[in-house]
Amino acid sequence: MKLELPSPRTPLKLGTRGSPLALAQAYETRDRLAGAFDLPHEAFQIVVIKTTGDNRAMIAADRPLKEIGGKGLFTKEIEEALLAGVIDVAVHSMKDMPVSQPNGLVIDCYLPREDVRDAFVAPLVDVLADLPAGAKVGTSSLRRKAQVLVAYPHLEVVEFRGNVQTRLRKLDDGVADCTFLAMAGLNRLDRSDVATAAIDPDVMLPAVAQGAIGIERRADDTRAADMLAAIHHASTGQQLAAERAFLAALDGSCETPIAALAELTGGNLRLRGEILRPDGSESLSDDRTAPIEDGIELGRAMAETLLNEAGDGFFDWRV
Ligand SMILES: NCc1[nH]cc(CCC(=O)O)c1CC(=O)O
Question: Which of 64, 193, 214, 308 has the most C-beta neighbours closer than 10 Å?
Answer without folding.
Answer: 214
